[in-house]
Amino acid sequence: MSDLIDRRALNRATLARQLLLERSSMPVLDAVVHLVGLQAQEPPDPYAGLWSRLHAFRPEQLAALLEERQVVRLPLMRSTIHLVSAEDCLTIRPLVQPVLDAELARYRDLTGVDVEAVLAFARELVEERPRSARELRAALAAQFPAHDPGDLAYACRNLLAFVQVPPRGLWGRSSQVISTTAESWLGRPLAQKPSLEDLVLRYFGAFGPATVADVATWSRLTGLRTVVERLRPRLRTFRDERGRELFDLPEAPRPDPETPAPPRFLPEYDNALLSHADRSRFRLQERAQGFSNVEGRIRGTVLHDGFVFGVWQRGPEGTLVVRYPGRAAKRTLAAVESEARRFLGLIAADGETPGVELRPIS
Prior knowledge:
- Helix 8 crosses helix 9 and helix 11 crosses helix 13.
- This protein has three domains: 184 residues, no CATH class; 53 residues; 78 residues, no CATH class.
- It contains 16 helices and 14 strands.
- The strands form four sheets. It has a five-stranded mixed beta sheet. A three-stranded mixed beta sheet has the order 1-8-9.
- A hairpin with a 5-residue loop joins strand 12 and strand 13.
- It is globular and about 65 Å long.
């Protein structure tokens, strides 16, 4: 019989797995592996995500791992750019190929294209030296003039294991996307028989307890019910307040629901908030509506007591602006402001001395 687990218990369990309940002292590379990568289509996001998770994190630590080819950036889960370890690149990339295939079929027309010839040409080109998207499209247009070079380049992006090479993704650097193959960049082939079961177990370790639908939302893979059923003897099961079955690793941390959860600043895209079909473990429904009235670009999310408290933006002269719906206690505002001032130490440009503003959403 499955144990009942309520929303607050789910919240604390997932915060603990995500290293957001208390900052961890684990090395940066170990944290990237533990989290099964970090979403990274916005280059600064992994830095902000790790700053909120690790003691004494410094951006140059992650930048060095990119330059040393110990971590890489490439399309993976949900076909979005993730920053993962080199080893995870080689093992996870083949597992998510069905996701990339489906996206390619949905958005591009390759009727009449000799896809194998296109891929062989592109592989040789980018392995000679990494190429920008513009360079790749131009070369494809010259070699295959009967077809749309944008469609051909997108096919290469989804069917070859393209990684984005530095300086793209380095802290404080701005660079266009330049790509080569993972095999060329890392000097090793993709895994021949990677284990989907192992990947699902790692998901539960980093995001559990979770439903099968949650795993599918994180990965966008299909047919996962069969995988989870094979794993059932190795898992512990729960029921949430709506009666849904959740799965978890037996020995994974599930802290007391009343464990304090300090404020945390998350980047624009953070897998902690994007990797469940039901995101209520982090969201208070009565507050959700207020965020629709926020003007300007939202740069990230602010958690307080484990749940979404507000969003953060950059205002004039680099001011860190936190917008939040409804009312908040003075103690809450003081805690959020204190963390905001520490966060400014990461994101403020050299020479800037910006302030912090906490503004209710009208």
